[in-house]
Amino acid sequence: MLRSYELAYETYGEINHDRTNIVLITHALSGSHHAAGLYDGDRKPGWWDDLIGDGKDIDTEKYFCICINNIGSCYGSTSPMHIDPATGKRYRLKFPVLTISDIVQTQMVLLKSLGIDRLHAVVGGSMGGMQALCYAIEYPTFARHIVALATTAYTRPWAIAFNKIAIEAIRNDSRFRNGDYDPKDIEENGLNGLAIGRMAGHVSYLSPHSMKKKFDNNYVDKDGLYELFGRYEVERYLEYNGYNFPTNFDPLSYLFIIKTMNIFNSARGGDSLQMAYSKVRAKLHLISFGGDMLFLPYEMEQIRDIMIDIGKEKLVSYKMIDSDYGHDAFLVEVDKYGQYLKEIIDE
Q: What is the CATH number of the domain that holds 66?
């Protein structure tokens, strides 16, 4: 248990007079509170900048958006590498395993402290979608609209298997030192175990179609075809993204976050899924993506079907976006669903 914690957050737009325009943005595994905008020193804008901003689909001239960095993340909120006030040392492996419900509970505390006692909408994809579902079930009157993209009612073996590659690669890297590594060393020199785990993650974020479209069977120009370690372009892509990731993301944060995702079940606490979703009172909007290989469309269709079966068909909508990109389509193909999301938010 954490005796105290800090949360980092960003806001966009202004709260209107009657405080009815507040939209909470929840982020995915390696995301942060920096959802939109481009600041001095940034190499690229916030991770959902195509969606959020003045005149965009979530229009910050109309809505006040807030994005909170998940507790456990390494982008400002309390994480395994923060100091435990009880010991004066970093938490490291003594950091608690958190649930999605725990993350949402800390967000509720922050929102209440800001005087926010009602939301117009919660919008999130992937792990952010898990948080959105949690709001719908555990805080059923807190938001008018819940929009969950590219997510699932509970994490299935396929996703857990990809995460297992990361867990084992990190734990068996000698420089991980059972969590007792020097964070500056990792930031400067990386960690091969985390890099390999991130490569596995990237495979799950794309799809066979998008990989063929991106890389086809092209070989790296400077590598010989018959060199043992000569590479295809897809291999170079995985190396680039994998080996750069540890310089920007903490290994222990990664381990704790994927544990949180692995144990996610929106029917936690002994409820069946039917009992859990019977608590929903907000309008629940589900958006899946045809080529998503991590959280397949049928997983979101299951939620829709449950809502219909329990007599809440008027509170649920479902749309599958025609996409071959893969799981990350919710981040990179905003043009395919942005107008639809705008219509939901604007009613």
A: 3.40.50.1820
Q: Which residues pair with 26 in a beta bridge?
A: 124
Residue whose C-alpha is closest to residue 207's, from 287, 296, 298, 125? 296
Quote the CA–CA distance of 289 and 324 in Å, as a whole number.
8
- Asked if residue 269 has pLDDT above 80, the reply is no
**pLDDT digits over 279-318, tens only?**
999 999 999 999 999 999 999 999 999 999 999 999 999 9
Domains identified in the chain, total number: 2
- Residues 138 and 190 both lie in one domain: no
Give the C-alpha separation, 275 to 153, whole Å.
13
pLDDT tens-digit readout, 28-38: 999 999 999 99
Task: Tell how strand 283-289 and strand 316-321 pair up.
Answer: parallel
- The torsion defined by the Cα of 288, 293, 298 and 300, in degrees rounded to 10, comes to -40
Residue 195, amino acid: A
Q: How many residues does the chain have?
A: 347
What is the rounded CA–CA span in Å between residue 258 and residue 100?
Answer: 11
Active site residues: 126, 292, 327
Q: What is the rounded average pLDDT for all residues in the chain?
A: 97
Cα–Cα distance, 340 to 319 (Å, whole number): 9
- Which of 211, 239, 259 is a domain's end point? 259
Q: What is the maximum alpha-carbon separation in the chain?
A: 68
Residue 285 dihedral angles phi and psi, to the nearest 5°: -110, 120
Question: Distances in Å between the alpha carbon of 142 and those of 22, 41, 344?
Answer: 11, 36, 17
Which residue bears the tokens 């396929």? Answer: 158
Question: What does pTM read for this prediction?
Answer: 0.97
